[in-house]
Every structure is written in C-alpha cells, then in structure tokens.
Design a protein that fits this description.
Layout (H helix, E strand, L loop, with lengths): L1 E5 L6 H21 L7 E6 L4 E2 L5 E2 L2 E2 L8 E4 L7 H8 L2 H15 L3 E5 L2 H7 L7 E2 L6 H7 L4 E2 L5 E4 L2 E4 L4 H13 L1 H10 L14 H5 L3 H12 L7 H8 L3 H12 L3 H19 L4 H7 L5 H12 L3 H4 L4
Parallel strand pairs: 1-2, 1-6, 2-5, 6-7, 7-11, 8-9
Antiparallel strand pairs: 3-4, 10-11
Helix pairs in contact: 1-6, 1-7, 6-7, 13-14
Length: about 325
Amino acid sequence: MKISVLVLEGVFDTGLATVLDALAMANRLAQWTGISTPGFEVTLVGVRSPVHTALGLQVPVRMIADTTNPDCVIVPALADMTAETLLPALGRADVIDALGALRTWHGTGARLAAACTGTFVLAESGLLAGSEATTTWWLSPLFRQRYPDVQLNAHRIVVPSGAMVTAGAALSHLDLVLWLIRGNSPELAGLVAKYLVFDARLSQSGYVISDHLAHSDPLVERFDRLVRERLHETITLDSVAEALGTSKRTLSRRLGDVLGKTPVEFIQDLRIERAVHLLMTSKFSVEQIAEQVGYGDGVTLRTLLRRRLGKGIRELRPRE
C-alpha cells in the first residue's frame, strides 16, 4: 500500500513521528511474524522544500510532482493550536497549494486521512463537504463555524466517511494509523497496538475540558455556570432558559453550535464529571455521590459511568 504523508511547514512533531513510527513498526512486525500483508510504502511529500517541523527539525520531502499516485494520503497536524494562529496558517501559499494537491489525489481515487488540526486542512479543500468528520475537541466550535456543510462528530476519535477518514486531537494520530493498518490486517493492527502499549479508544469525550469550550460563547458559559451550581437539583430546560433570559430553542441552538450537544447531554456530562471527581477524591458512598449530582440512586450512576466511560465504580475508586 502506497502512503504519502503530506508534510507542511510547522508540522506537529509528535503527530508526524507517530504516523511514521507506527507504519514502520507495522512493516517490521509483519516481517518478524509472517503476517500476510502487502506492507506500507511510505513517502514524505511536500509542496515546498525545505520543510521544518514546529520544533525546527528539517524534514526530507519529495516534491508532489515527483511522486506517483498514492493509495492513501495522510495529513498530520499543524502545530497551530489556537484559532488565532491556525486561521492565518490555512491561508499560507504552501497550504493553498497543498489543497490543490489533495483535490488531485482525491480525483485519482486516493483515500485521504487527517488528524487533529490536519482535519482543517482537509476541510479547507472542500472535500469533506457533506461528509461526517471529527477534529481536535477544543477547536470544534471553530470547525463547525467555518465548515457548516461538514457533519462534525467531535466526540469520536476516528470517523471514516467514504474516501475520507479523520481523527481527533494530538495522539489520535496513532488511532488513525491503526485504523488504516486494520484495513489491511486486523491481526497486525492488534499486534502494533500491543507493542506500543496502546489501548483502543472510541471517544474523545473523556478528555474534553468543558470549561474551555463553554468560555467561547457568553450564553453557553452562563449556562455552564448555572448548571454546575444546581447539579444536585432536578434541572429542567424551561427553568434554566428562564433564569438565563433566553428561549429553549436559542439555548439548544447555541449549545449545539459550540459543544455539539443538547442541553440534556451537556448536563449529563457535567454530572458524570462531578461524580468521577468525588469517586476519586472522597470517601462518600456511591449513593451519596449520586444524590449530590442529581441522580436518585446509585444504580443509575453506575450504569451511566459504565456506558459513557467504559469503566465501573471499582475502576474509578483509588486503591488504598
């Protein structure tokens, strides 16, 4: 399988290294174990030379014009982690040239893959329009605003959609590569994960800092603060909207735009967040904690923790 890794100026060092190391390990392990797989022929490509990582390391790239049509193109993240730095980067001449290359590769039938802020580069090309995608969780409000024709599911780690596949924040570069390896050999992907001591993850939700997202919109920030103060109570959307001086419809729309969640889903997130904190830092019983976060009994809390986090009470309680 021919894989081109598109390296742009200021690429995120860890993202690039993760992609290269995981694919190289897959090739080595396939040879050692005799797993039948076509292997991965990896080429670093660029639209300018030389190319430097965000930490200043020079990357030896081949010019796109000198490469043959790949089966897959991976776009690692740019190390621009805020809207203030990412948006100007998307307007750079080299990035604009890269967008044309992505469209050309797509036209030849190549699969296009991107992780973290690399998903913005892919979306900027217009090729994600009408498709489902994910992105780095803390930039999801910006993604929704800039690419309204993309169906964003920022909770998921990896989202395949037709000839595109996107992955979430930072170290989801590894989730992305393992997904690609799994397409050739599930056995090999499992072996690579074991050698890297890597646990499969399906969601970014457990890593999201809700405060960070909430602060990007005044109404959502006020909603967040009000709900946190009332977590122990029965909370209705009518009472919250009235207290905030807005309508249920406006509140739901703003939460959807910023967080990609309904008010009920966000309230549940905050309750689980508080419950996990109390489980790990207090000696309260499960029933006492359930009461403090607005649930009538411990059974409901246990069920939600298992469903949302994939963990039970015993796994969250610190060992003494």
